[in-house]
Write a structure and sequence with these properties.
Blueprint lengths: L1 E5 L9 E5 L5 E4 L9 H5 L1 E5 L5 H4 L2 H8 L5 E7 L2 H10 L12 E7 L5 E6 L7 E2 L9 E2 L3 E9 L3 E9 L2 E4 L10 H12 L5 E4 L2 E4 H4 L3 E4 L3 E5 L6 H11 L4 E5 L7 H6 L5 H10 L4 E5 L7 H15 L1
Parallel strand pairs: 3-4, 4-5, 5-6, 16-17, 17-18
Antiparallel strand pairs: 1-2, 2-3, 6-7, 7-8, 9-10, 10-11, 11-16, 12-15, 13-14
Length: 314
């Protein structure tokens, strides 16, 4: 199960931390206001996901970098076309004559306009871009717990929306039998996952066909989490959002403007309260969370914006 937390202040640039049950590392989406991120959370990050590099989404990469230097691990950064050069440029803005070569590695996965992903890495002290051989992977990001898919949205520049999808898991209820746990449990789960009904499972010196024991098993559907940042509220973007985020368990979506300011939204390729709510409703998202409001709004105006969003979500 994903455990997301908005780490930025309501009236500041967006940053979201994502943790996962029974997983050692965490993940950062957007490098806006990082005041809520702790040093430990920065250091314990496995990957960073950037929608686009407008200043309000990328300004505090430096803050995160400051705490990650010296951890001696590889950290993945995913983002739109140009992200590799932009990460390098930020880092090269500082002097690194005292840094150790193995203090950190950044692996950058750049999403091209055609949807292909190119991978490179940069390392201290010279931070040169080194193209890696595994270009164009089938999946943007994958670990033993979940995968991350994406859609390229239009914000008058590419803006990447991310879908975190936890793997389905097979659960066993041994209480449905008279057996005790053991190696056979793993063997039975493997047979179930592989569809091998005739596989022989030995339990307490007895042989069973796997299909005879499947009654103890069930597949638990994995959690899903969407992060949908800046995008124009137009049909092409909405079609992509509906395609990727249908039936998502929860999703963060930008609500930059109130409904009365929709002309500003259209002019600046942003979404606004009503449209963000409508697309979340169309996607049948179980829990839609509006975020990333214009800094021009005072507290009372943000309340109005939120009321508009939730009214149209009904």
């Amino acid at each position: 199960m994903f455990l997301p937390e908005v780490k930025s202040k309501v009236n500041e640039d967006i940053s979201i931390l994502i943790k996962l049950d029974n997983y050692s590392f965490n993940f950062i989406c957007e490098c806006g206001d990082a005041s809520g991120l702790t040093v430990k959370e920065c250091q314990n990050t496995e990957a960073i996901f950037i929608s686009h590099t407008h200043i309000d989404h990328f300004i505090n990469f430096d803050f995160i970098l400051r705490h990650q230097i010296g951890i001696g691990r590889r950290i993945i950064i995913c983002g739109p076309e140009g992200i590799t050069q932009q990460v390098q440029s930020k880092i090269k803005g500082y002097q690194w004559n005292l840094i150790e070569e193995n203090s950190i590695t950044y692996e950058i996965r750049e999403i091209k306009k055609n949807g292909q992903v190119e991978i490179a890495e940069i390392n201290p002290p010279h931070w040169e871009i080194i193209a890696l051989e595994n270009k164009h992977p089938d999946t943007l990001y994958k670990n033993e717990k979940f995968t991350v898919d994406f859609a390229i949205l239009d914000h008058k520049t590419d803006s990447i929306a991310y879908l975190f999808k936890e793997d389905d898991t097979v659960k066993i209820d041994i209480s449905k039998s008279e057996f005790k746990g053991g190696q056979w449990v793993r063997e039975l789960k493997n047979a179930y996952e592989e569809g091998n009904e005739s596989s022989l499972i030995k339990i307490e010196d007895q042989d069973f066909k796997a299909e005879e024991l499947f009654f103890m098993l069930e597949t638990k559907k994995g959690d899903s989490l969407g992060v949908i940042m800046d995008h124009a509220a137009h049909p092409a973007n909405h079609a992509k959002i509906k395609s990727l985020f249908q039936d998502c368990n929860q999703a963060f979506i930008e609500c930059f403007y109130k409904a009365e300011d929709k002309e500003f939204a259209q002019l600046n390729y942003h979404s606004y309260s009503e449209e963000s709510a409508k697309i979340m409703k169309a996607c049948n998202v179980q829990k839609a969370i509006p975020v990333h409001f214009s800094r021009k709004y005072k507290e009372e105006e943000v309340k109005v914006l939120l009321e508009e969003f939730y009214d149209h979500l009904k």
